[in-house]
């Protein structure tokens, strides 16, 4: 039985898209960055520049300050707010807490393996109130390894004193999560809350956390 569950964070446990929009909306209002009639355009541009978290926010804010002619705040000031305040807007996917709690109670050991900056990602995760269920939290910048590098998955296994064949990896990124985990011998569950046209090669595929335990059980048959 594969009794180790490893989760990605962004768009897997953390609904990053919803969290980001909630944060930007607050930041626009709090700092009065643009008039209200430009707020939607600002949010849309931020999301576009952010590119699903692949562009760090100093670049994003530099462009936004230029595009919206923001004069009262610097890139560093807005970036510091992002680093400090984003976690206050962390939103988990529906039923994530109940499902992970149930799996923990049933004896599964659970870990997190996330690409991103430290301690930024840890703080976003802590805000979801799930740390009591997790035996290890691995963030790429903290160990200078990044998915899909095999070494980051091996590092997580070492932390849990297990082998890749004991693990099921749950994630939303076809390359970093699914391909990366499969390449080290883990089973995989592709989590995609929104239907995509061509899912990756994976052992199971789910849209909602209510489907997760059944997917795990099918893998463990």
TrEMBL record:
Cofactor: Mg(2+)
Any single Pfam family the record assigns to this protein: HAD_2
Keywords: Hydrolase, Magnesium, Metal-binding
MF GO annotations: hydrolase activity
InterPro entries hit by this protein: HAD-like_hydrolase, HAD-like_sf, HAD-SF_hydro_IA, HAD-SF_hydro_IIIA, HAD_2, HAD_sf
SUPFAM superfamilies named among the record's database cross-references: HAD-like
NCBIfam families on file: HAD-SF-IA-v1 (TIGR01549), HAD-SF-IA-v3 (TIGR01509), HAD-SF-IIIA (TIGR01662)
Full protein name: HAD family hydrolase
Species of provenance: Acinetobacter pecorum
